[in-house]
From TrEMBL:
PANTHER family reported in the protein's UniProt record: HTH-TYPE TRANSCRIPTIONAL REGULATOR YODB, TRANSCRIPTIONAL REGULATOR, MARR FAMILY
A Pfam match: HxlR
Name used for this protein in its record: Transcriptional regulator
SUPFAM superfamilies recorded: Winged helix' DNA-binding domain (SSF46785)
Coiled coil region boundaries: 97-124
The HTH hxlR-type domain, residue ranges: 7-105
Keyword Repeat: no
Statement: the UniProt record of this protein carries the keyword Chloroplast: no
Top-level taxon of origin: Bacteria
Organism: Streptomyces graminofaciens
UniProt lineage: Bacteria, Bacillati, Actinomycetota, Actinomycetes, Kitasatosporales
Keywords tagged on the record: Coiled coil, DNA-binding, Transcription, Transcription regulation
Length: 124
């Protein structure tokens, strides 16, 4: 790996595990979506970011874009077989995160309290 580039598999990992990549993959597991439906389902994603995320995942072979020649234009997004595999892996991590959130919050409180005590000890 050169200093300017990233190993190809790490780049795909970055795409799949990006903030919006994860959410797109998980949503598309349920069914195909039109762009506006997907944007509403994900929430708080700009049109530009969702477009970029979908294009990146399409380029990686994870998302299929089906543009229908009708008026008004209709474009549906769905997972490819490869995308479904990736989405299943991401969903496992998302489920684990949701199930273990209480433990994470407890760890954060413990960390924050210890840090605050250290900071106060330095000031004294």
């Amino acid at each position: 790996m050169d200093g300017d580039g990233m190993c190809p598999y790490r780049l795909v990992l970055e795409h799949v595990t990006s903030r919006w990549g994860v959410l797109v993959l998980i949503e598309l597991m349920e069914r195909p979506y039109r762009f506006s439906e997907l944007r509403r389902a994900i929430g708080r994603v700009s049109e530009k970011m969702l477009t970029q995320t979908l294009q990146t995942l399409e380029r990686d072979g994870l998302v299929h874009r089906d543009a229908k020649p009708v008026i008004p234009p209709r474009v549906d997004y769905s997972l490819t077989d490869l995308g479904r595999e990736a989405a299943e892996q991401v969903r496992v991590l998302a489920t684990w995160t949701k199930e273990r959130m209480d433990d994470v919050e407890k760890a954060r409180r413990t960390y924050d309290e210890a840090r605050q005590e250290r900071d106060e000890a330095r000031v004294s």
